[in-house]
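hiii so um. not sure if this is the right channel but i have a protein structure encoded as tokens and i wanna go backwards to a sequence. like what aa goes where. can anyone help
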């Protein structure tokens, strides 16, 4: 036997570990003692969710004590099991308050409310801390603002704040040492975010979501996130164009201050409630109408949905196959998915908004660039192509895009809390890529970046100069050297749709221009006769204007593959297109 552990017949039967200085979480292996009769864990520093395996003990354990820890039940089933083991176990747990919310917002204060914990005896209080996030969305340090009188408190006024500033707030529970627990206890934190009110016009967020396809089931959850985001940030006005599966459901939602309004703008203007959301005239009308209706200090445009962009294996195809109505909405869906599931507008016979279509709409909505948007966010695949973004460079101060596979993460409730009228377009772009990448895992490898519109022409000029140098090098007999540099570059997956090939590399046709330039600087010596090294070096310097976050890993849609693309802007690979072998096609 070990101290506090009793065994019988080779089985652990009793655990007497009261006041034993235990810390951390209760392990899942706690359910692996089929003959356990006594489980005494009171007066420790155990915290976190009780594992579901605790339910394996309810028929054998005769005496159980969990008092004076920091444990909670993550499900009703676990809560029932814990009550069977110790009826009043919750009344002695120092846990974080639940249902933490921001309920009232002024220019210099946030009113916080929460559900007081069940354990209100033995003294103690709730401690409230706050911080202002950095432009990366992270927090360097919190400042304690104050404490409540006791653990019966259910609200707190966080005052003395700056107008129009987003804040991160955290609240934890404190219980001092007492007769039943020799150590003081701090619970883990409950977190919340909120933004103080400011005078003047809000940030206008225009979301265009052609979801008349397999993305339709996700629309309600995205609208809910918009509601949550605007509830804690009164400085944001959202207008969302939605077209869902089926007829008679094209509409515009206006969301502000946590309220969702279904407008009749579509019916009033078009005389119908079913539009082709892949028609550039519809996108143009939405952007112009929303912009005229809502004055704004900043305007952010989010173009959601399946993307094709200038991807040679995908662009121009339309898919008409029937889509199952049994789509799963578990996890973060990939964009795009399979051939039958990728039309932009199923009811109107498939199709996409092409690069030219987007350019037409953005030009019209910005008076040909005279009144540009602050941020245009391509919340879809493949739009991080230089050929694509260059077409739009006059129409927005900042562009946010993914060059490769994108995922419908859509954390708009996180984006919106940090959209403040005084933020620069660059800061808004950084907010988007930080929150987007932050909700993904290594099962959703991705690159997302932001770049200023004015920086795209210099990059395009540098690419053009490199192309001229490569042509000269090929004329001088360096064709194989150029080809090898291209083949070693990082590719994005342009063969996933038509061919279902999820491997990165040839025969994919888009590659990261940064990786190509780096390979060329290695392949050609400084001062080479064709000027390749100099042109590639200059291109790399211009690419420093692109700010990105990358995640590599095994994608959930193809776990046998490892996607390691970490580059930003893409270009068409400088290789001769060839016919694929049957092996490559399958």
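sure thing!! here u go:
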């Amino acid at each position: 036997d070990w101290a506090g552990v009793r065994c019988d017949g080779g089985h652990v039967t009793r655990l007497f570990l009261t006041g034993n200085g235990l810390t951390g979480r209760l392990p899942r292996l706690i359910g692996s003692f089929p003959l356990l009769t006594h489980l005494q864990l009171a007066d420790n520093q155990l915290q976190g969710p009780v594992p579901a395996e605790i339910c394996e003990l309810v028929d054998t354990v005769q005496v159980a004590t969990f008092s004076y820890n920091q444990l909670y039940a993550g499900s009703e089933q676990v809560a029932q099991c814990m009550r069977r083991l110790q009826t009043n176990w919750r009344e002695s747990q120092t846990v974080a308050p639940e249902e933490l919310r921001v309920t009232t917002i002024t220019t210099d204060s946030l009113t916080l409310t929460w559900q007081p914990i069940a354990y209100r005896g033995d003294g103690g209080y709730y401690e409230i801390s706050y911080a202002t996030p950095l432009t990366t969305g992270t927090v360097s340090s919190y400042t304690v603002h104050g404490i409540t009188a006791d653990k019966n408190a259910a609200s707190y006024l966080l005052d003395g704040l700056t107008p129009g500033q987003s804040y991160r707030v955290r609240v934890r529970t404190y219980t001092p040492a007492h007769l039943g627990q020799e150590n003081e206890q701090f619970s883990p934190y409950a977190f919340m975010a909120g933004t103080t009110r400011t005078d003047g016009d809000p940030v206008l967020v225009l979301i265009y979501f052609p979801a008349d396809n397999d993305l339709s089931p996700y629309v309600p959850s995205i609208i809910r996130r918009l509601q949550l985001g605007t509830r804690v940030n009164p400085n944001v006005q959202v207008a969302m164009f939605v077209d869902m599966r089926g007829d008679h459901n094209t509409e515009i939602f206006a969301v502000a201050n946590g309220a969702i309004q279904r407008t009749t703008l579509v019916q009033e203007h078009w005389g119908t409630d079913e539009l082709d959301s892949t028609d550039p005239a519809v996108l143009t009308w939405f952007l112009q109408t929303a912009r005229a209706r809502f004055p704004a200090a900043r305007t952010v445009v989010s173009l959601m949905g399946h993307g094709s962009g200038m991807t040679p294996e995908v662009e121009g195809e339309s898919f008409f196959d029937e889509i199952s109505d049994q789509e799963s909405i578990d996890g973060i869906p990939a964009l795009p998915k399979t051939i039958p599931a990728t039309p932009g507008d199923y009811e109107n016979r498939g199709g996409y908004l092409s690069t030219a279509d987007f350019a037409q709409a953005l030009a019209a909505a910005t008076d040909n660039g005279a009144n540009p948007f602050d941020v245009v966010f391509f919340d879809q695949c493949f739009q991080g192509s230089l050929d694509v973004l260059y077409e739009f460079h006059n129409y927005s101060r900042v562009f946010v895009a993914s060059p490769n596979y994108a995922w419908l993460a859509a954390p708009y409730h996180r984006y919106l809390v940090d959209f403040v009228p005084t933020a620069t377009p660059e800061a808004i772009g950084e907010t988007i890529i930080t929150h987007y990448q932050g909700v993904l895992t290594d099962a959703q490898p991705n690159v997302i970046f932001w770049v200023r519109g004015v920086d795209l022409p210099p990059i395009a000029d540098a690419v053009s100069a490199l192309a001229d140098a490569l042509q000269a090098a090929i004329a001088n007999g360096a064709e194989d050297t150029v080809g090898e540099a291209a083949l070693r570059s990082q590719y994005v997956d342009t063969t996933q749709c038509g061919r279902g090939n999820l491997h990165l590399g040839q025969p994919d046709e888009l590659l990261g221009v940064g990786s190509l330039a780096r390979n060329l600087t290695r392949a050609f010596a400084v001062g080479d006769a064709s000027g390749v090294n100099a042109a590639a070096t200059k291109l790399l310097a211009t690419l420093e204007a692109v700010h990105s976050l990358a995640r590599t890993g095994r994608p959930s849609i193809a776990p046998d593959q490892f996607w390691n693309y970490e580059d930003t802007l893409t270009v068409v690979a400088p290789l001769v297109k060839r016919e694929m072998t049957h092996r490559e096609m399958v």
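oh and The first strand starts at residue 5 and ends at 8.
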